[in-house]
Design the sequence.
């Protein structure tokens, strides 16, 4: 049955001025397990649905975490929810991050803005399975320091893996890096030819990062992007999420750069 | 026991007998009929409502009914509507949601009970269009249940095409004018000195059962030969062609062609082509509430890829220019549809040519892109 299943908000964490993280637990039977990179259609009664990537799971194993930035009517309604409120959820939809591709090698995660959210469950899984990889590194960019997600968690992660953070516009008191994320690609350790990269952020940031990584020797087939287009159904039927030959709800959102590069190079495709 | 009759010949009175046999089975019989100066699709309360003696004259941007000198019922090319009107309706309620006093959410899937349809007079191109929508809407891992409920068990009476229009190109797309399976009954219409009659074949057990109830006589070699000749002649009278190349490759390799500027200067981005196309399936959603705000409904309605909202995200609209929106429609239809669903999305019915208010012709655009690509290749070859 492809109608929203009721979930209850059991946790709400404010991340930035316009972004919150909601923790949801099923009211009835849980949906099938979500994998990092996949997304849900989340229904804010009575306003509508939006696609949201998984930003984490819960210790119960049945819960879902979604980080939502209030940019439209539905996301604003979701961001305004409080523990006890109910939402509807459909999913899981789409392709997951290909973690197996990184087995034995280095993982490099590059996030822009709220794009850190879909990478978080991948990062946590990689940190939990350190013997599967050589190393894990995280590069994070945001518009301003106030736009950085999961700041406390970032500090914890930094104790377990190299983490580099930059902002476009510093604020008083900011002592960190200033500039786009591509300026940090040499600040964290990884062996390019042995690296699998996972990118999520604005399209222009992902394009620049992917190009720079391939230039450094990371294989294009092992640079993964999480792409975004309008989505209405999640099930491959509404036709809205097309990117050339791809239906991003089905063939994405995670797409390898060797497939995405030519498509993203065509203006207004 | 004898083999059930698989083929026969019947007179025009057989059409009403056929309609009644389908109605007796509880079916809603839909077929072509003349209304508002066009041949449209409607529920038939009598076979006499079929467009006997009517033909159509079509050209890019032009559609006119015209009287024929004979009594043929199916000697007309595609009208403004297609069977998606019934199988993939313009508006469908998908679910209702209620919020209880304690804040709990109850969502109920809408399970409507559509009529058991029988379509009388499906052209082979439109039969292929139904097969295309089958692949899109119920051929993948997720099924569109509203479509499935309408499509499952729909009874399809195909009428082979003997009178193609000036905008037809089913031969280029490999979808007609003959039928190649997927039907319950196939008819071929003949009107000559021996009279007005139909060669009837059963394509399924359900079709054979219905055929057994019709006022038929054994198929005679002359009628069969005349019917086959008429379909063969039709294949040689296509008004349009597609360039004889792999259209999927052509679309993939011409995304930056100059020709897109040319067609974009003419295209009004009105979306008529998507409305009349028998395979265009794109939809959007609408969430509505009652006055209390505690009851909500999710509706799905046809959408148009020419609409700016179609690709609107919080970062802006992806396909802003008319060029990019016409290009999306055409490249999807005859190119990337293959990647997404394993076949072309075009069946060569010509509707998009006829109903375009500025007479843009999908075949002309494909030929122009092919010419530009060939010229470019030739130049490249000359320079090397």
Sequence:
């Amino acid at each position: 049955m492809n109608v929203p299943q009721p979930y209850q908000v059991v946790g709400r964490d404010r991340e930035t001025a316009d972004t919150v993280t909601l923790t949801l637990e099923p009211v009835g039977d849980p949906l099938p397990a979500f994998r990092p990179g996949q997304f849900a259609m989340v229904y804010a009664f009575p306003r509508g649905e939006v696609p949201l990537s998984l930003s984490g799971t819960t210790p119960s194993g049945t819960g879902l975490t979604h980080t939502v930035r209030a940019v439209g009517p539905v996301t604003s309604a979701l961001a305004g929810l409080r523990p006890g409120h109910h939402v509807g959820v459909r999913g899981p939809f789409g392709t997951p991050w290909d973690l197996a591709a990184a087995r034995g090698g280095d993982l490099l995660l590059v996030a822009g803005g709220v794009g850190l959210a879909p990478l978080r469950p991948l990062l946590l899984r990689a940190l939990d399975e350190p013997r599967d990889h050589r190393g894990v590194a995280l590069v994070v960019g945001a518009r301003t320091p106030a736009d950085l997600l999961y700041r406390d968690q970032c500090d914890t992660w930094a104790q377990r893996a190299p983490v580099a953070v930059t902002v476009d516009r510093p604020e008083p008191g900011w002592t960190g890096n200033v500039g786009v994320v591509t300026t940090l690609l040499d600040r964290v350790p990884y062996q390019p030819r042995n690296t699998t990269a996972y990118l999520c952020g604005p399209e222009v940031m992902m394009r620049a990062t992917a190009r720079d990584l391939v230039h450094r020797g990371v294989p294009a087939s092992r640079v993964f992007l999480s792409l975004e287009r309008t989505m209405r159904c999640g099930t491959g039927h509404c036709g809205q999420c097309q990117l050339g030959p791809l239906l991003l709800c089905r063939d994405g959102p995670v797409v390898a750069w060797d497939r995405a590069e030519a498509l993203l190079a065509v203006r207004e495709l | 026991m004898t083999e059930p009759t698989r083929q026969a010949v019947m007179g025009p009175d057989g059409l009403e007998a056929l309609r009644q046999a389908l109605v007796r089975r509880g079916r809603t019989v839909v077929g072509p009929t003349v209304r508002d100066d066009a041949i449209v699709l409607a529920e038939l309360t009598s076979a006499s409502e079929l467009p006997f003696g009517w033909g159509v004259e079509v050209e890019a941007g032009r559609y006119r009914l015209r009287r024929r000198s004979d009594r043929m019922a199916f000697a007309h090319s595609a009208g403004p509507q297609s069977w998606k009107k019934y199988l993939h309706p313009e508006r469908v309620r998908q679910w209702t949601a209620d919020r209880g006093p304690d804040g709990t959410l109850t969502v109920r899937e809408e399970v409507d009970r559509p009529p058991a349809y029988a379509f009388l007079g499906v052209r082979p191109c439109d039969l292929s269009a139904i097969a295309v929508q089958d692949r899109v809407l119920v051929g993948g891992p997720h099924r569109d249940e509203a479509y499935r409920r309408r499509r499952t068990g729909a009874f399809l009476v195909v009428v082979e095409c003997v009178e193609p229009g000036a905008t037809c190109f089913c031969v280029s797309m490999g979808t007609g004018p003959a039928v190649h399976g997927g039907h319950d009954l196939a008819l071929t219409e003949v009107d000559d000195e021996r009279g007005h009659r139909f060669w009837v074949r059963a394509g399924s057990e359900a079709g054979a059962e219905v055929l057994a109830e019709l006022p038929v006589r054994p198929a005679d070699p002359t009628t069969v030969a005349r019917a086959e000749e008429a379909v063969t002649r039709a294949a040689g009278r296509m008004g349009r062609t597609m360039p004889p190349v792999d259209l999927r490759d052509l679309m993939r390799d011409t995304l930056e062609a100059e020709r897109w500027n040319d067609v974009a200067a003419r295209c009004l981005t009105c979306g008529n082509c998507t409305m009349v196309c028998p395979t265009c399936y794109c939809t959007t959603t609408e969430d509505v509430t009652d006055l209390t705000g505690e009851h909500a409904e999710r509706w799905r309605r046809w959408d148009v890829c020419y609409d700016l909202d179609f690709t609107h995200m919080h970062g802006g609209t992806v396909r802003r220019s008319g060029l990019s929106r016409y290009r999306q429609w055409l490249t999807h239809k005859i190119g990337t549809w293959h990647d997404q669903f394993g076949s072309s999305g075009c069946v060569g019915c010509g509707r998009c040519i006829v109903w375009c208010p500025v007479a843009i012709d999908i075949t002309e655009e494909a030929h122009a892109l092919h010419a530009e690509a060939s010229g470019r290749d030739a130049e490249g070859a000359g320079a090397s």
In short: Chain A touches chain B through 43 residues (CB under 8 Å). The CA atoms of residues 208 and 229 of chain A lie 19 Å apart. DSSP finds five helices and 16 strands in chain A.
